[in-house]
Amino acid sequence: MKNIDQISRKSFIKASVAALAMPFVSKLNMETKAASKIGLQLYTLRDDIAKDMEGTLRKVAAIGYKEIELYGYSDGKFFGKRAKELRSFLKSIGLNPISGHYGAGVENRKAIGTLSNSWQQAVDDAAELGQKYVNCAYLTPKERTLDGYKSYVELFNRAGEVAKKAGLQFGYHNHDFEFMNLEGIVPYDIIAGQTDPSLVKLELDLYWVVKAGINPVDLFRKYPGRFPLWHVKDMEKGPEKSYAEVGTGSIDFGKIFAERKLSGMTHFFVEQDVAKIPALQAIQISYDNLIKMKV
């Protein structure tokens, strides 16, 4: 009986310890899961990268970011490096290059590595780097005419076909100007409504959508499943509506993330175009707050 009592007592103690530990383990697992999803658009750190690319990216990895989106591809190089060389470095520090931003090249046809010039090379280099997505980042003011938007349907579809053949997905990244009425038409509806959904996905910049007076969830309902990528960028409280570290501003990310399945989101990237504090400090705050949100 004594041995049985001792065994029962030991079993009870073990079970009790395990029960007490479960909430902490569960919390740790949730935080680890959240951390594995948090990406960064490197444009946020453009000044730091210009001074010391490798050192800056090591700091990004040290914060805990696992996925990144690149910018500035030009003439076959990313930050001055060929795809193979950069891929090796990124792998060594644990950063996964999910996506990249590219110019339309409509105004500046001489720029190499845009949708309008050497796009095949850009896609091939993106594939070699290990990217899954290639996105049109921006349209210059001269590229924002109604006739221009109509012509981009074909341009984007062609870009999407090239990307698809290489095993990548093409997408379009918005600002706020696409939601401004242009001769009675909302340009974003041309891009989202007239392009081939299988060839052209949409990278939704949440800050710019909110600044345009649009509820992101309404876009998810209008174009379900079209938004595999998001830019998670916060907005300062107050009339200026400037950029803010994620979780310190006015955007209700909880309500937006609750509809991630409707949107089709699979990856998201923190971005802050301008910060009032050092950019590396800003992305640390955004990262920490996203962990707390358990996104």
From TrEMBL:
Gene3D superfamilies registered for this protein in UniProt: Divalent-metal-dependent TIM barrel enzymes
Domain Xylose isomerase-like TIM barrel residues, every copy: 57-264
SUPFAM superfamilies reported in the protein's UniProt record: Xylose isomerase-like (SSF51658)
Lineage top rank: taxon: Bacteria
Pfam family, one: AP_endonuc_2
Protein name, entry field: Xylose isomerase-like TIM barrel domain-containing protein
